[in-house]
Amino acid sequence: MSTPAERPTVLFVCVHNAGRSQMGAAFLTHLGAGRVEVRSAGSAPAQTVNPAVVEAMREVGVDISAEVPKVLTVEAVRSSDVVITMGCGDACPYFPGKRYLDWKLEDPAGQGVDAVRPIRDEIENRVRDLLADLGVEAAE
């Protein structure tokens, strides 16, 4: 088991931190099983996480009902090894030497759970690929 200092830190960023970034963070937390430090934030955070997103994640056994959208800070970006943007555009600060990934995904805002499921499944697949790329075996 790696020490906390050896764990990679991943930050998921979207505008409202109410859907895509919450799902990404939840999957990485769940599948990374403590081997990755996970953060999420939004450039203009919503008041609550999208209820359809909470329901879609519950369907796959991941409870995010207690999560709260958080504001993106320069420090969160600075202290992360990998920054994954999901539609925050130029609102995300750039630091040389950081690894940035831009995951183009449909925004689940205002959509029902049926529309959220394929977004959720795509995020899970990308998180599994990210774990493999980081050299971290996914927990099941």
**DSSP strand count:** 4
Order of helices and strands: EHEHHEEH
Secondary structure: helix percent: 25-40%
Q: Domains counted in the coordinates: how many?
A: 1
CATH architecture: 3-Layer(aba) Sandwich
Largest sheet: 4 strands, parallel
Oligomeric state? single chain
User: What characteristic shape results from the CA principal axes?
Assistant: globular
| CATH uppermost class | Alpha Beta
Query: CATH homologous superfamily?
Result: Response regulator
Distance between the termini: 17 Å
* Average predicted local confidence, pLDDT: 91
What strand line-up does the widest sheet have?
Answer: 2-1-3-4
- Computed over alpha carbons, the radius of gyration is 14 Å
- Which fold does the CATH topology refer to? Rossmann fold
Specify the structural class: alpha/beta
Q: Give the amount of beta strand, in percent.
A: 5-15%
Poorly predicted runs of 5 or more residues: none
Please give a structural write-up.
This protein has a single domain, classed as Response regulator (Rossmann fold), CATH 3.40.50.2300. It has four helices and four strands, in the order E-H-E-H-H-E-E-H. The chain is globular, with a radius of gyration of 14 Å. The protein is an alpha/beta fold and 140 residues long. It is 35% helix and 14% strand. Helix 1 (20-32) crosses helix 4 and helix 2 crosses helix 4. The protein has helices at 20-32, 51-59, 74-78, 113-134, and strands at 9-14, 37-42, 82-85, 99-102. A four-stranded parallel beta sheet has the order 2-1-3-4, covered by helices on one side.
